[in-house]
C-alpha cells in the first residue's frame, strides 16, 4: 500500500503566524520551505503526496475531498519554549503513540528536546468549552501538527532557519512519518 499524504504549511499569506523580529522570519514562509523539501523526500520514499496551501478551512476541505491516509500541517511554535512537539487529535491512544514516534524522531534527528505528543491544541486556553485545533479535529484522515521548533527561540532560528537547514528539518519529520507509518 502506498501511503497517501496531504502536506500543508501552517497559516497562510495573509496570516503568517508567529514572527521572529530579530531575523525577519515568519511561520508561514518557513513552513513552506520545509513542506517543499518534505514533499520531495516523502515522494522519493514512495509516498503519494499532495500539497495544500491557503486558509485553514480551505485546506481541511481539500483534504477531506481527497482520499488521504495522513495529513500534516507544519508549524513553528512561539511562546518561549524550546524543543519539538507534535499535536494530535484529543482522546486517541493510537494517535498519541504515532505523535510520540514522530516527535521522538524529530528530536533525535535535530538534537532537540522532545516535548512529545500534545493532545489537541486548545484555542483560547485549556478551559471548559474550548475546541481542539480544527486541523486535527476536522480532518477526516489521521492528522498531526508537527512543531519542529520555536520561532521565538533565537538560537533555534539562527541554527536551523537563518542557516537554511530546512531540508534537514524535513528529513527529521520524514523519518518520523516513516517510522510511525512504515511509509
Task: State the order of secondary-structure elements, H for helix, E for strand.
Answer: EEEHEHEEHEHEHH
What amount of the residues lies in strands?
A: 15-25%
Count the E strands.
8
What fold name stands as the CATH topology? Aminopeptidase
Describe this structure in words.
With 183 residues, the protein is α/β, with parallel strands linked by helices. The protein has a single domain, classed as Zn-dependent exopeptidases (Aminopeptidase). 42% of the residues lie in helices and 20% in strands. It contains six helices and eight strands. Strands 4-1-5-8-6-7 form a six-stranded mixed beta sheet. A two-stranded antiparallel sheet has the order 2-3. Helix 3 links the parallel strand 6 and strand 7. Helix 1 crosses helix 6 and helix 3 runs antiparallel to helix 6. The protein is globular. About 4% of the residues have low confidence.
Brief synopsis:
With 183 residues, this protein is α/β, with parallel strands linked by helices. Helix content is 42%, strand content 20%. The chain has a single domain (4-181), classed as Aminopeptidase (3-Layer(aba) Sandwich), CATH 3.40.630.
Amino acid at each position: 500500500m502506498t501511503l497517501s499524504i496531504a502536506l500543508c504549511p501552517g497559516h497562510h499569506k495573509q496570516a503568517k503566524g508567529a514572527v521572529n523580529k530579530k531575523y525577519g522570519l515568519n511561520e508561514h514562509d518557513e513552513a513552506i520551505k520545509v513542506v517543499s523539501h518534505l514533499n520531495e523526500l516523502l515522494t522519493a520514499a514512495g509516498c503519494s503526496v499532495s500539497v495544500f496551501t491557503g486558509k485553514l478551512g480551505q485546506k481541511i476541505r481539500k483534504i477531506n475531498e481527497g482520499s488521504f491516509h495522513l495529513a500534516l500541517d507544519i508549524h513553528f511554535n512561539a511562546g518561549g519554549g524550546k524543543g519539538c512537539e507534535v499535536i494530535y487529535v484529543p482522546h486517541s491512544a493510537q494517535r498519541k503513540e504515532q505523535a510520540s514516534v514522530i516527535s521522538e524522531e524529530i528530536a533525535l534527528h535535530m538534537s532537540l528536546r522532545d516535548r512529545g505528543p500534545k493532545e489537541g491544541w486548545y484555542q483560547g486556553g485549556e478551559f471548559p468549552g474550548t475546541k481542539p485545533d480544527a486541523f486535527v479535529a476536522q480532518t477526516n484522515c489521521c492528522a498531526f501538527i508537527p512543531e519542529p521548533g520555536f520561532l521565538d527561540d533565537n538560537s533555534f532560528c539562527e541554527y536551523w532557519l537563518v542557516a537554511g537547514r530546512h531540508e534537514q528539518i524535513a528529513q527529521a519529520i520524514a523519518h518520523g512519518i516513516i517510522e510511525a507509518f512504515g511509509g
